[in-house]
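<given_protein>
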Amino acid sequence: MKKTFFSLVFAGVILFSTQETQAQAKFPPASSTTKIEQGIGIKKATLLYQRPNVNSRKIFGELVPYDQVWRTGANGIPSLTFEEEVTIAGNKVPAGTYGLFTIPTKGDWTIILSKNVEQWGAYQYNQSEDFLRFQAKSRQISDKVETFTIAFENVKPNGADLTLSWENTKVSFPIAVDQSQEILAGIEEAMKGEKKPYFAAAQYYFQNNLDINKAVEWVKEADKDNTKAPYIKYWKARMLLKAGDKAGATKAATEGIAIAKATNNDEYIKLNTQVLEEAK
């Protein structure tokens, strides 16, 4: 009887130890999770999605059927969060979080932004929960993409392209923002303060084709505050050149080259020299 009792106790200890070991074991997921935060202008977009691999399978037309709603990845559907209103395919999309579904075809794909973000797969997909549907161009690419990839590409101050790539197919669509009024109001308010953002404001005006005379006025003020900065001389030269003041641009670029040489700054020797050649 005692022998049986101790045998049972010993077996229980072994079982408990085995279960505990198994509970602590960690395994890599079949489809990894990726989170991306992308700055677009002065705000950001956040993407969360799952990334399956090809694993020697035929993807589109077989594993992922054509003309059917697809979860767009693995497991839970991707989510897209915008900090402010954006424009997609000519449609205003308010700030918020949206689920991403797609309908792959041999030609253009249908992209779906859903108001229901918390979905595993497309099994419970309900078209009545769509916020937006639109068409996106797809194309065949020569380099095979093993791991399903969603990425922000061609990022500019006023937008970016969202691309979906897997196997030999790539789909993309533009996301645009219009922050000009907010930025201009911010510049106007900041100029009332003690520390005025002359240089950044001048760059914004120059790069967005706004009042070039105002940009020149501000970059001159920035130059007064920091006379030994070759990068300010460079931008000052570019702005003066755009304003039609070739003599002023030549002087600023020449000064920038001299400062850059004194500090062994090859980058701004090169950049100021380029503007100097343009001014000639």
Observations:
- The two ends are 106 Å apart (CA to CA).
- Confidence is low (pLDDT under 50) at residues 13-18.
- The domain at 180-279 is CATH 1.25.40.10 (Serine Threonine Protein Phosphatase 5, Tetratricopeptide repeat).
